[in-house]
Write a structure and sequence with these properties.
The chain is mainly α and 228 residues long. The chain contains 13 helices and no strands. Helix 3 runs antiparallel to helix 4, helix 6 crosses helix 7 and helix 8 (147-164) runs antiparallel to helix 9. It is extended.
Length: 228
């Protein structure tokens, strides 16, 4: 099943100028009525995206550096030997294998992942900053239960972004600043899109019984009779 968070994450990878021309399938058109994005969800997704893109950037740089070193070794006749870290990873492997480390909280890391994270953040301080900002925003939404404290914590997070000078987070910081009232509504009952995704799954299961939908109006009528 294609989840809403999956769609949001991949939609964010599309350049802004091309987003208006993205077309949805009939099934997504039907379910999209029930799947309106929340600013809190998009905020956290975008933070994860920044960390992901930064890791990929460093990985490509490591691959380019290694390829250049290999070419140079061929010219000099000396065998190429990649730097191996104390955990057995090369720099390229470290960046590739750190993918799931950056998606987890530190409390969820295994011993090998803790070791890998320490090496990663030592070599790439910007990733430490990006990871810290991303986890900080996630913890804010998970642990804060009061709108007043939420507003104060959002302001503190916004200030951290400003102090770090991390330009990649400016977009989400501005989004929070412009839509903070809507975002704060999340803390009224701490609602997420989990129930929406559950309902979306029911819609898709119902649609699959008919092998597609030709009459959308009648399909929506049937849905209201079953689930309203």
């Amino acid at each position: 099943m294609t989840t809403y968070s999956y769609l949001c994450t991949n939609f964010l990878f599309i350049e802004t100028r091309y987003r208006p021309i993205v077309k949805l399938t009939a099934s997504i058109n039907i379910s999209s009525v029930f799947l309106q994005p929340t600013n809190s969800l998009l905020s956290r997704i975008y933070c994860d995206k920044v960390t992901f893109v930064l890791r990929i950037k460093y990985r490509w740089e490591a691959m380019d550096a290694e390829n250049e070193a290999i070419e140079q070794s061929k010219k000099t006749g000396r065998p190429f030997q990649a730097e191996v870290l104390h955990n057995g990873d090369t720099i390229k492997q470290l960046l590739a294998r750190s993918r799931y480390v950056l998606y987890k909280k530190p409390s969820g890391w295994t011993d090998s992942q803790k070791d890998r994270a320490e090496l990663l953040f030592e070599r790439f301080p910007d990733l430490r900053i990006a990871y810290g900002l991303s986890m900080g925003l996630s913890q804010l939404f998970e642990n804060t239960t009061d709108k007043v404290f939420a507003l104060a914590n959002l302001a503190k997070w916004h200030e951290k972004v400003r102090q770090t000078g991390f330009k990649a987070f400016n977009t989400i910081a501005r989004s929070i600043q412009n839509h903070y009232q809507t975002i704060l509504n999340y803390f009224d009952n701490r609602s997420t899109n989990a129930s929406v995704e559950s309902f979306n799954a029911k819609i898709k299961a119902f649609r699959s019984q008919f092998r597609g939908v030709k009459n959308i109006e009648f399909f929506l009528y049937r849905l209201t009779q079953l689930y309203a």
